[in-house]
Amino acid sequence: FNSFSAERDLNKEQKLGKKLSENIEKKHEVVEDSQKNLLIRQIGNKLAKVSELKGMNYHFKILNIEGPNAFSIPGGYIYVTYDLFDYIQSDDELAGILAHEIAHVIHNHALKQTRDNTKFTLLTILAVLLTREPDVGVLGKLTTITLLNQYSREYEEEADLTATDLLIKTGYNPVGFLTFLERLYTREMFKPEVNLGIFQTHPETENRINYVKDLLIEKGIDIDRRATTDYLKVNIKYIFEESFCTGIISIDNIPILNLSFPKSHEIYLKMIEATQNLDKF
């Protein structure tokens, strides 16, 4: 990674992260939901463990902010909102979101984007923000970048690439991040009144989805959306009798079709073959 340069000081980044996190948590309530906190920490730490960036301590927390949101700040602090859990449908989707934010930390994107916007060096930015009275202008730019995820396309794509590698290494299905983005994009299109936080649709969203999709194809990953979502999940239950077989086909646990045929019948064999393909799209 090009993020590991002589310019980088992880100790100062973590000091800055602690300072910023204290300000964030004064303004926004930290949710003490033991089950959800355990989940994000287990998934997050598993992902962070396989990162090539060593020496960074990660902190995963839930904030009581309206809308599905996730962001990271320097020093390994990753935040998700409580509302986010209403939108995710699997651990794979949550892992995709956390992996993306971890990737921003790995590549030091928040400070790099601040550097790009201010023309200060990374060390200068750290220095002015770690003083007792930090530069308000620089602090404002950094806060806006992190909370609103105002990263350049280059940084977003770099984060997507690294996140995909982290997911593959840890056994999570990378398709989860794609299905999550697609669902929020669809909801915003049909329900524009819903607050989607940082995932609010903008002209680049469709391009972002297409980039992630192309990235998965390039990595040789089968885009099986049903593997990471609950939507239109097809289940087939077979009841075998002496000479007959009944196949009960359900979608989202609602039975929609019963088929009974003699076991030796050609249609029975075709039914087995057909139902095996129902859960693919």
TrEMBL record:
GO molecular function: metal ion binding; metalloendopeptidase activity
GO cellular component terms, A-Z: membrane
One Gene Ontology term from the biological process aspect of the record: proteolysis involved in protein catabolic process
InterPro entries registered for this protein in UniProt: Mito/Outer_Membr_Metalloprot, Peptidase_M48
Domain Peptidase M48: 35-213
Name the UniProt record assigns to this protein: Peptidase M48 domain-containing protein
Keyword Metal-binding: yes
Cofactor(s) demanded: Zn(2+)
A family per Pfam: Peptidase_M48
Keyword terms of this UniProt record: Hydrolase, Metal-binding, Metalloprotease, Protease, Zinc
Gene3D superfamilies the record matches: Metalloproteases ('zincins'), catalytic domain
Keyword Metal-binding (UniProt): yes
